[in-house]
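Researcher: Structure for this, please.
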Amino acid sequence: MPVNVQMHRNLTFPGLLRRRVDVWMPQGFEGPRPVLYMHDGQNLFRSTPLIGKGWQVAEAITALAGQGLIDPPIVVGITSTANRLGDYLPQKPMSSAEALQFVNEHWKFSGFKAGQMKADDYLVYLTKVVKPFIDANYDTLSDADHTALMGSSMGGLISAYGLCEYPQIFGMAGCLSTHWPITGEFMLEYFDKHLPKPGAHRFYFDHGDKGMDAAYQPWQTRVDELLVGHGYEQDKDFQSWTFPGDDHHEEYWANRLHIPLSFFFGVNNWPVMQPV
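Model: Predicted structure, token format:
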């Protein structure tokens, strides 16, 4: 059965390519809702030959909410564009000549140029265009405590970066199969300097050990150590999971989506480890 999504095509920002914003509303729940902003919105609700069934976000939230396990959020899916790398690559830590050279060496096939870096504009677009529109047109809980970012791979990077840049707006960042290798030491140095104080924000990280995900463990270990060093507590302020056998694909992210959903929106703030 097709998922009922409201599509908005006129939310634009100077310098960014046009994109669609999809909004999914949980059914049968009264009162204002928390909001989950997700990148790569074209992969959240629809099936295609490339991604299979996609993230199946609506199905996951409906199942969890139906058992009273989460306070279901509105989901806002922001589609990516042909400049996905430029939109999602954290801009401040990756703007130096040294960092750009590192990116070009890591991503040789892309032909990536400094002028394509638009992550800061993308975050302004989210905070100054998309979020005000959502809050004005939907019944939302608009404070940071009820507002989350989530994405995978490069979408994981921009989610972590977005929380650090706008901690007064986003209280949670879900980062699945975060593509740390493309940022090298530069993102770690930025993260170390710009993490908000623990207690008011939550991070969720995970990865598999196959395909592209096989390279993530050393980087994620360092990120976890950095969080602990800043006073973040496991299961309270952050979670970090490894899933043996999982690869870098929407199929695997869909299979474990219930965990960050329950960590961010759970009634008991404890992860649901088995799909429901």
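Researcher: Any notable elements?
Model: The chain is about 35% helix and 15% strand. The longest strand covers residues 202-208.
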